[in-house]
Amino acid sequence: MHDRDQSFPQDCPGGHPGMSTEAGIDVQRQLESLVQDFRTSDPPMPVIVLHAEDPADDDRVVELVDELREGQQRHGTRLAVAPTEPQPGDHDPTARAARLLRDLGDSRKWGGRSAAYRPYSFPRLGLVRALQEATDDPEMREHWPTAPAGTPDGNAQREQAQTHLLRILARQRWRPRRPSRRHPQMLLNDVQQFLPMGVLGAFTALLTRPEWYIAVLAGIGLMILLAALNHVPGRAPLFLWLRRESRWFLTTTFLQSAARRRSTSVRLLRPVRSWRAIAARAYDVAEAMREGGPFPLQLYVLALFEDLRDNHRRGSWDLRGFKRTRPPVLFLRRIGRENGGIELIRAVSDVRSRRSELDPLLIVAGVAADDAALLDRGADGDPPAVRPRPPSQPSRLPQRLRHWYDEWAGNLRADQSPSRTNALPWVLRIPLPPDDLVQLRQADWRCVRARHRPPLARVVWSVHSLLLVLALAATAGVVHSRELHRTYCSAGLLTADRDTERRPAPGGGTECVGIAVGGVRFGAHLRGGADGEVERLRELEELVLAENAEVLRDHPRAHVTVVYAGPLSSSSADPSLVKGAEELAGVYLAQRVVNENYTVKLRVLLANGGADMGHQRVTADAIAEYADRDPTVVGVVGFGRDLQSSPDATRRLHEAGLPIVSGTNSATYLPEEFSNWFSLAAPDEHQAKALGLIARQLRTREKAPHALVLARDIKESQDRYTSEQAAYGGEMLKREGFRLLPSQSYRVANGKPELRLHAESICRGERVPSVIYFAGRVEDIGPLMTQLSTEPGCANREISILTGDDLSKARFSGTGGRDGVAPRITLYHAALAELKEAASGTAFYEDAAKHLPWLEDGEATYDAADFASGQTALAHDATRALYWAASLGDVRQSRAATWVNLRSVRLDGMATGTIDFTDAPLYGERHGHSIVLKRVRRTAEGVSEAEVLCSRPAGSTEPLDVGECAIG
Known about the structure:
By secondary structure, this protein is of the alpha/beta class. Helix 4 (123-136) crosses helix 10 and helix 23 packs parallel to helix 24. Keywords: Membrane, Transmembrane, Transmembrane helix.
């Protein structure tokens, strides 16, 4: 014993006392050698049959088997013990052998919950047992066919028998009968197949970008529905053909011999055909089981092997084959004819020889010395042939065990040959000499175990690592989802509509900017607004979207898409949405008129540049990116505010091949630098020249008049309009002979202009200007009036203020608005839309009364509050001009053709007159813009009244003169 192999540690885990005999120590060592090989490869697992050389030692062999079982159990081996005690009932050895396997489909027989990793599952063995129970059911006795096969009566009887067999199987849920306490486990096993469906349902819900809990509820709800349908009493389970045992049942070649009457080919994506295949295979197998013989026993053995192979498959999703590093062991204490053990061993060897596939099951059995011969000869029980012992065979048991195993493994291929009928090739019979079965002193007992280390797969791919990964993934998902919700206007748990983004809004908070092509509504992101403007904007959005839906539904190949880009959000400092709401009304009105009267339909997408178009570069990028995906986009209407980012936004759309038709952007430089820029607004330089007619008349009232340019400071803002106005206004005052005082710039803080110090400087200086050119925004004019009206140097002095077209957005008292001028101050401003003169020749107001739902009878007039500013009219005319170029000849035009066609646009009868781009040079400003000069002053009644001094409708190129614009 001292020269034993010391490659294994001689420890006894769990307090196991060890093996009490030399034979036990050596056999345990051989088992652990197989275990160690199993960790790295798939060695063939024999059926180890132990027997004594002397029949008097048979009981000691049984004790040795018990010690081996206890040792393997202490080592963490998955093992089962087949009951080999004689059972009352059938005397057929094959039936007894099948009875030994019936209970092995219970995972508790193999260690249960206390076993490492997870309990075994035996779905294939359970299916075979369910078929056996349904076949043996008393209800089936009277339904088996009695007529010969192939006859009409025989075929009809077989159809009825199959129907009744399927009814019994459905009642059993296609599983073996079990006590009621096992039903919750059965429910859990069935629900597992619905988990992928639930995940798929949740993922599908996520694609619609709902809240995360809606997606979770959708997945859980789908699983509950499927589970409820799966357990309808008397019905076969849902997705029966998707179960792994069903796939094996239909594809194993072992059962082809049973399928004698019809084809059982199956396609998993064809449930009806699959169900018919399963039904046919089940009945054929049931008939074969009813006939008896070796088939039922071999089917049990095959199902057990296939389940164990699957439980140790290394390529599984949970890598269970890498985690279960010890092979399962089946212990048979004493096999013989009376308990079916001999037939079981024969069936194991026959199935392994027929299938020629390795399975992990290691069987250790004890046999009486007198019965050992049955394992070497056929079932006739003839005396065994004497096994020759080669001269080189080792004499000691440890060496003999290893030699026998090597010899057995080497001869395995030849021993499976059909001609060697007297051999059981998978049986390794080990005779134990009497000396090795003598019990040792307890101090000499040994427990041998293969070196053990936790497998890497248990650490890397386990429940704990999975929970960690899920926790990290959930955390990352939540962080990612929150980032999506912070970045984009419409976001779900994992996805977002990337065409719209959240950007900082003036005065705090965020606003939604970009192009709305999905379910985004810019009106839904507005916090406030004045005079019901938010409700008006939301209503217009829904009207445009409804019109778009009709266009896409009825005219998918006969429409063009125009993008309106305007200020569709407001800031907390200035909640007014006048410009965006009024422009959108004009765009929608043009869409309705076009779609009612033309073959090529108009689809309008809305793009928000933010409050005062502060994020128009982001919007331009979003429009260009969307236009790359949608070839029906032919151009853009809007971008009506001149900012520092205007050149970049125009250049980005130029690169995308998109022309821009703006209704209100009066920048002089844009048409000179970009060939894709078209505008209906009179340029700032033209406006300043027209206001020079007023300044010329004001200069004659004093001998040495002084003038001042008061401009908004643009150092901390994007505004470029005011700097352009200041530059052209200063040049105009110089040209008209005014003595210019140093220009002043006022700051805007928190949305409010800081004008008090400037008003004091203007009014309390030695030279008070009689004319102020105000290069600011409409929201700043009210505070300026208030400051000038209270300063002593200005309150009692006639002062004239000249300013550009931004004041056309003001609503003075005479037009039902909220703005006004101070006493003794006269305001002169330019406007972009001459509406009165064009009103008699346009259908614009009739169309507005027809299609704008908030207008009542008589409210659609050129001087009504909704139209007086000209924003609606200009947006309408710009949209009609772009559409005309995109549908030339009543044929849908491409984006490039639309760009070219714009230079041939001439439209009469528009809201502002005639829109004529025919004289527009490539890089220069055209003529023929609509322009209006207005005067606003305080009446004796204390209200502000606006009046038109002179004007030109769109299309007229005749310049204004002093006589027309006389101020009296």
